[in-house]
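Backbone-to-sequence.
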C-alpha cells in the first residue's frame, strides 16, 4: 500500500512539473535583471557633470547654480553640488554672486546650504562660513562671522540675513566698519548695519557710534554714503571734539574731512561758554566754532574781554 501511495505522489509531481514547464509563463533571466536594475535605480544616486540648477516659482527666479559635478539622491530628495558658481536674483537681475566648494540642496524643503561662500554684491567682496537660503522664508542667512571688503574699507559682524527679492543685506552682532580717506580712518559701529549692495551705502541703527581721530559722534541712526565718503547722523546727536561738546538733531561730516555741520536745535559748549544756533559748524582744521541762523552766545563772566 505504501509503495502504491508513494508511486502516485511521484507521478503527480512529474505531471505538475511537466505542466509548469509547458503552460505556466516564466520570467526570463533578462527580465529579472531588468526588474532588479529598475528597483535599484530608485535608490542609487545620479551623478552628473556640468549642470545648472535654479529655483523658479511662478516665473520668478530666486537663485541659479552652475556645478562642475552633482550627485542626487532620490530617496532623500537631496543634491550635493560641487565646485559651484552661483547667484541670487533681485527682480530678475543678479544681485549677489558667489562661488563655493559645495552646496547641499534639499529639494523637499526647498532649501539650499552653501559651504564657505565667497562673493560679490556689486560693491563689496564678502566671505562667510556658510549661507542658507529657504523658499518658505524667502531669505538667506548665516549666524557665523561676516566680512565685507571694498577698496575703501572693511565691514565685520556676526550674523547676516537678506532676501533675494530685496536689495541689500542686514549685518548683525554689533558690526564695525572702517573706511580710510587719506591718512584718516573713519570707524562706525552700531547694533545693526543694513548694507546696500547696489550703491554701497551703509545704514546703521541702535547705539550708533562714529569716530575719526579726536572726533566722536553718537546718535540713534547713522548712514554712510560710499560715493562721497559722507556720514549723516540723526536723532539725539552728541558730538565731542577736543574741548568742544555739541548736540543737535542732525550732523553731517565726511571721512577725512575737516568740519562737522550740526543743524536742528544745535548747541555747543566750550570751556564753560555755551552757544546755540539753527546751524552750527565745528571747524576741526582751525579748532573753532562757526554759528549761523539765529546764533546766541553765553560767555562766562571771567572770559569777557578775552574771548569772542
Amino acid at each position: 500500500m505504501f509503495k502504491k501511495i508513494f508511486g502516485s505522489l511521484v507521478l503527480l509531481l512529474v505531471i505538475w512539473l511537466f505542466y509548469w514547464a509547458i503552460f505556466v509563463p516564466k520570467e526570463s533571466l533578462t527580465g529579472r535583471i531588468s526588474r532588479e536594475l529598475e528597483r535599484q535605480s530608485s535608490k542609487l544616486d545620479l551623478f552628473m557633470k556640468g549642470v545648472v540648477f535654479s529655483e523658479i516659482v511662478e516665473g520668478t527666479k530666486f537663485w541659479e547654480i552652475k556645478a562642475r559635478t552633482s550627485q542626487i539622491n532620490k530617496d532623500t530628495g537631496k543634491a550635493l553640488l560641487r565646485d559651484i558658481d552661483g547667484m541670487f536674483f533681485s527682480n530678475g537681475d543678479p544681485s549677489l554672486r558667489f562661488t563655493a566648494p559645495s552646496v547641499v540642496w534639499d529639494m523637499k524643503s526647498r532649501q539650499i546650504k552653501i559651504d564657505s561662500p565667497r562673493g560679490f554684491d556689486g560693491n563689496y567682496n564678502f566671505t562667510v562660513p556658510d549661507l542658507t537660503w529657504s523658499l518658505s522664508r524667502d531669505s538667506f542667512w548665516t549666524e557665523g562671522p561676516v566680512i565685507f571688503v571694498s577698496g575703501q574699507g572693511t565691514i565685520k559682524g556676526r550674523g547676516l540675513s537678506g532676501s533675494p527679492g530685496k536689495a541689500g543685506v542686514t549685518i548683525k552682532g554689533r558690526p564695525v566698519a572702517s573706511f580710510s580717506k587719506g591718512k584718516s580712518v573713519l570707524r562706525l559701529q552700531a547694533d545693526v548695519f543694513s548694507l546696500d549692495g547696489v550703491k554701497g551705502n551703509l545704514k546703521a541703527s541702535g547705539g550708533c557710534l562714529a569716530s575719526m581721530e579726536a572726533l566722536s559722534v553718537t546718535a540713534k541712526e547713522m548712514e554712510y554714503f560710499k560715493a562721497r565718503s559722507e556720514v549723516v547722523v540723526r536723532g539725539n546727536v552728541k558730538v565731542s571734539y577736543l574741548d568742544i561738546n555739541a548736540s543737535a538733531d542732525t550732523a553731517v561730516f565726511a571721512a577725512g574731512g575737516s568740519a562737522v555741520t550740526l543743524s536742528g536745535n544745535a548747541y555747543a559748549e566750550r570751556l564753560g561758554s555755551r552757544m546755540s544756533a539753527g546751524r552750527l559748524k565745528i571747524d576741526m582744521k582751525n579748532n573753532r566754532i562757526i554759528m549761523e541762523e539765529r546764533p546766541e552766545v553765553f560767555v562766562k563772566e571771567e572770559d569777557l574781554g578775552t574771548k569772542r
